[in-house]
Amino acid sequence: MKRIIQTVHAPSAIGPYSQAIEIGGTLYVSGQIPLDPETMKIVEGGIQEQTEQVLKNIGAILKEAGYDYGDVVKSTCLLSDMVNFKAMNEVYGLFYSENPPARAAFAVKELPMGVLIEIETIAAK
């Protein structure tokens, strides 16, 4: 049976989707963008600040579901421009310093609300 995950410590969904769904010991976290969950505004700064906020949002969802960063098995990073890859990677590495998950990173034409990054995550127990 699937379980809907919802926390006030991550941004509310800006469309018809759940923050995350857990089923069969696997957690599927919807793509997170750099919204401050308290203000629902994009955090100020560049790719590093936006990446940090996205990963904090993911962390809040993981925690609500009873997971942590060590349980993450796959991330997909969507970037507005691959020129931001190196700076994004530096921040990303701080959250996944040991046994990092599998990952893909893509540059896309446009992201919601004009942000620089969106990350979706899969975690498993």
Describe the structure.
The chain is an alpha+beta fold and 125 residues long. The chain has a single domain (3-124), classed as 60s Ribosomal Protein L30, Chain: A (2-Layer Sandwich), CATH 3.30.1330. The chain is built from two helices and six strands; from the N terminus they run E-E-E-H-E-H-E-E. It has helices at 47-65, 85-95, and strands spanning 3-5, 20-23, 26-32, 72-79, 102-107, 117-124. Strand 4 (72-79), helix 2 (85-95) and strand 5 form a beta-alpha-beta unit. The longest helix has 19 residues, at 47-65.
Q: Strand arrangement, largest sheet? A: 1-2-3-6-4-5
CATH topological fold name: 60s Ribosomal Protein L30, Chain: A
Radius of gyration: 13 Å
Helix amount, in percent?
10-25%
> In total, how many domains does the architecture comprise?
1
